[in-house]
Amino acid sequence: MTKAFKFTINSRLSGSLARAGTLETPHGTIETPAFIPVGTKATLKSLTPEQLADTGAQAVLANAYHLYLRPGPDIIDQAGGLGAFMNWSRPTFTDSGGFQVMSLGVGYKKVIDMTGTDPEHQPKKANLARIDNDGVTFKSHLNGDLHRFTPEISMQIQHQIGADITFAFDELTTLYDSYDYQIESLNNRTHPWAARSLAEHRRLNAERSHRPPQALFGVVQGANYEDLRRKSAKFLGNMDFDGFGLGGALEKSRIGEITRWMSEELPEDKPRHMLGISEPDDIFDCIENGADTFDCVSPARVGRNGALYTRHGRVNITRQEYKTDFRPFDETCDCYTCANYSRAYLSHLFRSKELLANTLATIHNEHFILKLVDDIRNSIADDSFYSFKAEFVKEYYESR
RNA sequence: GCCGGAGUCGUCUAGUGGCAAUGACAGGAGACUGUAAAUCUCCCCCUUUUUAGGUUCGUAGGUUCGAGUCCUACCUCCGGCA
Q1: Which helix (H) or strand (E) holds A20?
Q2: Closest nt to residue A169, judged CA to C1'
Q3: Which pLDDT value is given to residue A385?
Q4: From the candidates A77, A95, A170, A285, which is the catalytic residue?
Q5: How many whole angstroms from its chain centre is CA A391?
Q6: A140 CA – B14 C1', rounded, Å
Q7: Cross-strand partners of A219
């Protein structure tokens, strides 16, 4: 029986946990480290799949919660799976929906607090989600209908959607939850749910042998706590997952060491995916500490909101100074947008609220982050990672 | 010429005699990390670091403790009649 999924490490960066490799799936191979753009509702907002492929995207990640609510997993299954449905022939991922189910309630807008644990910014009480040890009952953000996810249900949905790589259903805690709550969450939910996700996943892979086999990543939690991160990574690492997602709340300034704790405990020969990370400094820190893939909405979202990446940092294209600036957005960028359009034109499109603004900005931002990760991958292979990182970070964060 | 109506922050607009005065747009700045996001926040008469001060609702007077609001005249615009 052919394994659906194969991860090979081709080179390592000495003195670090960084590695470059390949991740084979039934829909193609991903060169790692890799950034995976997010197309939550089976579309990367404002781009056609062809445009997305042209930015350099090797895969796309969609969301089980959103696709479950609409159009419903049956329809995607009937279409032949996510890739066929959205006309994307390369590899696909789906997130379990755990993040959405939880973040719409207790953690809404407060899940990943990068600045700390200021009690003044504590999240409001849960209003859409209620968590118990068996699963989560929640209200649809679309119409308030009551729904329930359990690990089994999430896996059933993810198998109907049919992405190459799926994630276990986990509990998302926040930085505001106590240490005791974090332990209780790992012991009573995230870890048992991982085992249940894995069992249901195996059953479904066997039952649905007419479809390409899917892979399942377990999701490590533990917030900012070293003992909990290590414990969670070790616990999940002993289970037969195809890879691992590193998730949950964490302080931005500690993202590197937190990644390292998990990488040191996880099996060396399986891929590690950072959930929801894409800022350049975070990507460098995570790769250096053993991360292989990333997904994030940020490049697309901030792009639609008028913020474009440059090697000198992120800038808002609606700034007055760009109104009459006829240079390409970034002379050193080889994306479609920079090859063909000026800053003044982009400024005009955003000010006019023209739809093309979203498309051109998204193309640039996705390409920027994808290219960055490509360059990092190459720097691991030729051992220039540290100088490349130092140069990039200095230019990106200090020159503006 | 007569009768009626109207003049408020760049634009449109709210405004019972009682706090520079509503909202929208335009304009300026910022934010966004497993997408409830083509979204959100702040500024937007002048000066000031501020709790402050100054000057304002077509113009000029008046009534009043107090006027964007009431009265008078004038100016401008829009209807109607000549």
Answers
A1: strand A19-25
A2: B34
A3: 97
A4: A95
A5: 25
A6: 38
A7: A245
Residue A25 is encoded by which pair of tokens? Answer: 């799936």
Task: Measure A251 CA to B42 C1' (Å).
Answer: 26
Q: Per residue in A168-219, pLDDT tens?
A: 999 999 888 899 999 999 999 999 999 999 999 999 999 999 999 999 999 9
Q: Which one of the listed residues A113, A292, A295, A330 is annotated catalytic?
A: A295
Cis before A151 (ω within 30): no
What token pair was written down for A317? 């294209």
Spacing of A119 CA from B20 C1' in Å: 36
What are the helix and strand counts (H, E) for chain A? 16, 16
Which nucleotide lies nearest residue A298, CA to C1'?
B33
CA of residue A204 relative to chain centroid, distance? 24
- What residue has token string 């579309």? A43
Active site residue A95: yes
Tokens of A157: 């949905």
CB A289, CB A259: distance < 8 Å = yes
Which nucleotides on strand B sit less than 7 A from a protein beta carbon? 26-40
* Separation of A379 CA and B57 C1' (Å): 66
Alpha helices in chain A (DSSP H): 49-54, 64-69, 73-79, 82-86, 98-103, 151-161, 179-185, 191-207, 226-237, 255-265, 280-288, 298-304, 336-340, 343-351, 355-381, 385-398
Distance A123 CA to B33 C1' (A): 18
Question: Rg of chain A over CA atoms, in angstroms?
Answer: 20
Cβ-Cβ contacts under 8 Å for A343 (sequence gap 6 or more):
A317, A322, A325, A326, A327, A328, A329
User: From CA A58, how far away is CA A370, in angstroms rounded?
Assistant: 9
Q: Which nucleotide is nearest to A115 (CA to C1')?
A: B33
| A173: nearest nucleotide, CA–C1' criterion | B34
What is the distance in angstroms between the CA of the first residue and the CA of the last residue of chain A?
55
Tokens of A194: 């991982």
In this structure, the number of other CB atoms found within 10 A of the CB of residue A52 comes to 24
> Quick check: is A240 catalytic?
no
pTM of the model: 0.92
pLDDT average, residue stretch A263-292: 97
